[in-house]
Design brief:
mainly alpha; 75% helix; Growth Hormone, Chain: A; 415 residues
Amino acid sequence: MSADRPYKQIYFLVFAPFALQLGYLNLYYRRCGLDDDAIGTLAAAGSAMAVLSPLLWGRAADRTGAKRGALALLAVGTALAFGSIWFGRTLGVLLVLHSLLSFFRAPLIPLADALCLDSLKARGDHGGEHYARVRLWGSLGFVLVATFFPLLLRDDPPVAPLARLGLVFIAFPLLALLLVVRVWRLAEPPATPRPVEAPGDLATVAGIPQVKRLVLILLCGAMAQAGYYQFLSLYLADLGVSDRHIGIFWSVAVVAEILLMAVGRPLLRRVGVRGMILLGLGATAVRLFAYSHRLPPWVALVCCQPLHAFAFAALHLGSIAFLARTVPDRLRATGQALLASLAGGLGGALGSELAGKVSVLTQAGLPLAGRRGLYAAFWVCGWVAAGAFVAALLFLREPAERPIEEPLEAGLEAD
């Protein structure tokens, strides 16, 4: 529908530059001379910043109703921070710049989600079931950049390995600035009426029993996923995959994600919210255990990367639907921010540090189950994901549908 078009474009431009960050930023760090432990520390510092940032921006957006303005400002900061990283070549400088990047980038997705869900609710979709069809345009943006941008990179020996990545630090800010233009032209959706003074919003959302369980389970899931997101490109490089071809592996993963999101609504109805979360955590564990072995590149491409359909898309859709059914509409941005900061931010920080430490310690010392380096890191992260799956199976219950805005007390007593 035409009302969805602006949000499809926003998701496209939120995720298109993320393909560059995910595919090439850690390669840049390695070519600056950093080892896996230092790269894990950078990722952990960024994730730690992501604990605080979404909460600050989400709460401010809920209080002021200015989600559109906040999103535009964050996109400007993201462009400037990422471009500045090219000028940092030491761990200390990169630590500051990477943290700034995370401060601006981490709230982009939860705020975009909140804007989209506000718009859907205004058109009668109170449970966010149509969300997947809009959100998949973000995945499409990621795939197009991950697939075609590497064709612009030089892969011949006369060009220094570090210099080959210079174009990444030009393209990312340009895409982020296009997001600013698109967001600035967006009409702010009708805000849900709320009191001017509403102290304790964060505590209110965090106090919902179902939300507490979800956050703890997804925190463990994010710890496991951190190893995959931070080190897959390095794993592929160690297998001999070139800079130009690394993007194809990320593209295959996100194409699978798009396919699942295209059928996300009927699948959600069939397996339920809890079922989607279980599918995601189970696929996460399987993929990480697979990458704890030195696989032929074609096996990684054909067999492991398509699991992203469940490891990300099913898990994300289930989480969004879970919040839509358990968090009051007036606190939607706060709920999204809480999940992004505690699950994504804190989980990502702990997981990145864990994976980096395991990789370096097993290279220098005793192996874990016969594995060293990144293979040992993936193995440990796989067990973390398996633990999150068991916890969800035992303690997470299917949330009841909430077709209309309920009083706050109903959300608190839903469990």
